[in-house]
Design brief:
alpha+beta, 31% strand, 631 residues, Potassium Channel Kv1.1, Chain A, 18 helices, 39 strands, four-stranded antiparallel β-sheet, globular
Length: 631
């Protein structure tokens, strides 16, 4: 036999026999259930568990040391386990004999404690990963203390990051006020606190001290020294020591001002900038630009204040055609879409083309890490679903034709704290190209010339006033008591006959405004456009004002972008900022955008800048040359 044959035979011998391993495990489980050949009895309170030492020692370092140490315990037939719950011990024994572990929200913490005591590493890891996935605003402070108690660095790290991200919402919680002094200092000293004012940190420190001032007065100096005094307003500084015990005041004053830095380092939340976040953009290559379907999708954002472009982490799995949402508390989510499968051979053209699979995935954007974190998947796969946030929940509405008309009508709701989805009352009709906004704690869905309102408290849809025009693919945004429906394509007789929604010659963009209180639509002032030639108008609320980002076509056929701002009082649109001539490249025609506050220091700045174009402020309106008004 040659050497190669020997190597192959040895390799086959070394490979585990999966069928035999499964059969052996099943026999051990049968012996346990029938109490055959057991050689040890675990006594937990009033419950006894006859087991096999070999099985227990295999999965537990605690039992391995006990049974192999040569001490008296190794020779006993009965072992009493104190301060443990029989139910959790039973779960671990079942895992030892089957490899199956049943973890729930109600048992994960006591099960972790039991596995920690018995040193069952596999159970510890699974419980830890379960807890990390379940960290939310309501339990993050408790998870920090829990991880600290059991020296679980991974759980502590993830819990602390959630506390930093949600600090304005968690520092009043009872669990926060009960934090140990060491953990409190660790949180208050963090540069990554998501606070816009240092007064929030000061208030958190004072609440913790006042929760038990008698016992915590010894920590006055160490706690208050975490406050970056020079970041406080002058008014706050003057009132800084009001309410502190008089006998400690002078000591605290001296210690604080001696340790105060000359220039404070701003907390991460103080560096946030409001940015336009773009998805479904084109990609830059050596030969020009290609659609995102040809290469991994790219997400970028643009800061109007700094006039800079930053790169966000690409969506997982080359995801595209997803929905995107920024919640009021500034969390970014993407959901649904499709992912490429593989290149499939097309018989008619004799070419290979990429096949796609629609997905039900949901991802949350970790702004500090510039990464996407998977959350519970939706109940339905959806392409370009409308995502909105209403009354504390995320809603996924409709989407392109995935699963037929019924799926296009479905509506589901996501609970962020519980990480679960549930189905809600479906849309009255299946629509293409619909858009959704939230106003007055209700969801408004618009397309063509109709609009429906969803009332969460009643879980029902109500038909509202019809619009004056029949348009699709428009962009919508809500601000105060008004909803703006902007741009899009007029529909004539059939969806196949479409043209841009504006004056003839495409020199302006149609705007309709809905008054929620009056349940009435009216035509608003058109947006002046420079040779507007396609429906690339994206409406957003930017810096508390209704704005639109418009893709304009120029005489040289180069695309230029501009941000227009709406003046409610005078019903006029003003050119606020030209964009592409300074920093932004060609995004294509299918891009979408939302507004969110991101941290520039956590993002990669894009160094690419296109050549500048002449700043042309003239456009044609009804055949006349008009100057664009500037704010």
């Amino acid at each position: 036999m040659d050497c190669d044959s020997c190597d192959e035979t040895m390799s086959e011998c070394k490979s585990p026999n999966t069928n035999y391993a499964v059969s052996l495990l099943e026999q051990l489980k049968l012996f346990y259930e029938q109490k055959l050949l057991t050689d040890i009895v675990l006594q937990v309170e009033d419950t006894e568990f006859p087991c096999h030492k070999m099985v227990l020692a295999t999965c537990s370092s605690y039992f391995r040391a006990m049974f192999t140490s040569g001490l008296s315990e190794s020779k006993q037939t009965h072992i009493q386990l104190k301060n443990l719950d029989p139910t959790n011990v039973q779960i671990i024994i079942t895992y030892a004999y089957t490899g199956n572990l049943s973890i729930t929200d109600s048992n994960v913490e006591p099960l972790y404690e039991t596995a920690c005591f018995l040193q069952v590493e596999d159970v510890l890891l699974q419980c830890r990963d379960y807890l990390v996935k379940k960290i939310n605003t309501e339990n993050c402070v408790r998870m920090l203390s829990f991880g600290d108690m059991f020296s679980c660095s991974v759980l502590k790290q993830n819990a602390k990051r959630m506390i930093e991200h949600r600090f304005p919402l968690v520092y009043r919680q009872e669990a926060f006020l009960q934090l140990s002094h060491e953990l409190l200092i660790d949180v208050l000293s963090s540069d990554n606190l998501n606070v816009e004012r240092e007064e929030t940190v000061r208030e958190a420190a004072m609440l913790w001290l006042e929760y038990n001032m008698e016992d915590r007065s010894q920590h006055l100096s160490s706690v208050l020294s975490q406050i970056r005094i020079d970041a406080l307003s002058e008014v706050t500084q003057r009132a800084w020591f009001q309410g502190l015990p008089s006998n400690d005041k002078s000591v605290v004053v001296q210690g604080l001002y001696k340790s105060m830095p000359k220039f404070f380092k701003p907390r991460l939340g103080m560096t946030k900038e409001e940015m336009l976040i773009f998805i479904e953009t084109k990609l830059e290559t050596e030969k020009g630009y290609v659609s995102s379907g040809s290469l991994p999708n790219v997400m970028v954002c643009y800061s109007p204040q700094a006039e800079k472009v930053y790169k966000l982490s690409s969506p997982p799995g080359d995801l595209e055609k997803m929905g995107i949402l920024v919640t009021p508390d500034n969390d970014v989510f993407i959901a649904g879409g499709q992912v490429p499968l593989k290149n499939c051979h097309h018989g008619r053209t004799n070419r290979y083309r990429t096949a796609f699979r629609p997905v039900d995935s949901l991802f949350w954007f970790d702004a500090q890490q510039n990464s996407w974190v998977p959350k519970a998947p939706m109940l339905c796969a959806r392409l370009k679903p409308s995502l909105v946030y209403c009354e504390g929940y995320i809603y996924a509405i409709g989407g392109d034709s995935v699963g037929g008309e019924l799926n296009k009508r479905t509506v589901e709701r996501y609970d962020r704290e519980k990480d679960v989805w549930s189905m809600m009352t479906p849309l009255p009709f299946a629509w293409n190209w619909s858009t959704s906004v939230v106003a007055h704690n209700c969801i408004y869905v618009m397309t063509n010339d109709v609009m429906y309102c969803y009332v969460p408290s009643a879980n029902t849809w109500v038909e509202m006033a019809m619009r004056k025009t029949n348009r699709c693919l428009a962009s919508a945004v809500a601000c105060g008591d008004l909803i703006f429906y902007i741009g899009g394509l007029h529909m004539f007789n059939s969806p196949s006959f479409l043209r841009p929604a504006g004056n003839m010659g495409c020199s302006s963009v149609t705007v309709e405004i809905y008054d929620i209180n009056k349940n009435e639509w009216r035509l608003g002032a058109n947006i002046p456009a420079k040779r507007y030639a396609d429906p690339c108008v994206r409406a957003v609320v930017l810096l508390d004002t209704v704005c639109i980002l418009m893709r304009e076509t120029h005489l040289n056929d180069d695309a230029k972008y501009a941000i227009y701002q709406y003046d409610v009082e005078f019903d006029r649109w003003y050119l606020w900022q030209p964009v592409s001539e300074r920093v932004l490249w060609d995004l294509g025609k299918d891009f979408r955008c939302v507004v969110g506050k991101l941290y520039p220091s956590c993002l990669e700045e894009s160094p690419w800048k296109p050549p500048t174009y002449p700043d042309v402020d003239m456009f044609l309106l009804n055949g006349e040359l008009v100057t664009i008004p500037r704010s």
